[in-house]
Amino acid sequence: MHHIASVPSYLEAVGAAVRDHRERLGWSRRELAAHSGVSERFLAQLETGDGNISLRRFADVARALGTSPSALLGPADAPAEVRPIALLGVRGAGKSSVGAALARRLGVAFVELDQRIEQTAGLPLGEVFALDGEAYYRRLEREVLTQLLANPPPMVLATGGSIVNDPTNYALLRARCRTIWLSARPEDHWNRVVAQGDQRPMAENPHAFAELRALLAARDKLYARADHTIDTTGLRVPQVAAAIAERVR
Predict the structure, then answer these.
(1) CA–CA gap between residue 69 and residue 73 (Å, rounded)
(2) Do residues 87 and 159 touch, judged by C-beta distance below 8 A?
(3) What pLDDT is attached to residue 1?
(4) How many whole angstroms separate alpha carbon 50 and alpha carbon 42?
(5) Cβ-count burial of 126 within 10 angstroms (0-12 exposed, 13-18 middle, 19+ buried)?
(6) Strand runs (DSSP E) across the chain, as ranges?
(7) What's the average pLDDT block by block, 10 residues per block, for the chain (249 residues)?
(8) Could you tell me which residues come within 8 angstroms of residue 95 by beta carbon, excluding any fewer than 6 positions away?
(9) Residue 245 has what pLDDT?
């Protein structure tokens, strides 16, 4: 039996694709309404996943955006075994190392979403946030995700830790990928980052560990919406990769 994305998640993903195409054209909803003949109010509902649009009106929207209904709908109903695997988790979860090992094990490509965002922006992530703010980063994240997942080959995708905080981008990811949360205790996350030679968590911030615990607590329920959760406590990278491969088989 093929795995089908839940209806709300799928509609949110389609809405995200519509909004991404509109914003890449530099149009407001009012301008898209004028070009498509679909009301601005209904476009707002469509972009947030609340619109129950007819096929004819949806085709009008796609045509106005210079694309097709099939491109906007994307592969959310693709068989589970060919859908990309997306790894979730905060910094220190092991998304990069596990993702690379898993991709080698499965014989597929490995992609780091934040690297693609940096390539699109032409700037390191730190400068993206410093110069343009989080809203711009989220727009880039949605644009890169939409392009990556429009007609994706089998791949393993390591996501940014905060993607779960953006409902639209997280819905797009969940609709079109098999999502895996790499779960661990706060101590594990901390120790992994420090073991990599990164002292930034402790630099000039004596409350960094408490903040990490609070961050994990705040995101736990969001990460738990992933298709699968892998407890990585006490496991080495090859063991985690093997556990994921077994889970998604």
Answers:
(1) 6
(2) yes
(3) 40
(4) 9
(5) exposed
(6) 85-88, 109-112, 155-158, 178-183, 228-231
(7) 50 81 80 90 86 80 79 61 87 87 94 93 85 86 87 90 88 88 77 59 60 79 91 90 90
(8) 87, 88, 89, 158, 159, 182
(9) 93
Instruction: Note if the pTM is more than 0.70.
Output: no
d(CA 41, CA 30): 9
Strands (E), 45-196: 85-88, 109-112, 155-158, 178-183
| CB-CB contact of 87 with 158 (8 Å) | yes
- Give me the torsion for CA of 65, 166, 125, 212, rounded to 10°: -170
148 Cβ contact list (under 8 Å, min separation 6): 84, 111, 113, 116, 157
CA distance 28 to 155: 34
Q: What is the pLDDT of residue 9?
A: 61
pLDDT (0 to 100) of residue 21? 78
Q: What's the token pair of residue 48? A: 């947030």
Q: What per-residue confidence (pLDDT) applies to 155?
A: 94
Burial class (CB in 10 A: 0-12, 13-18, 19+), 239: middle
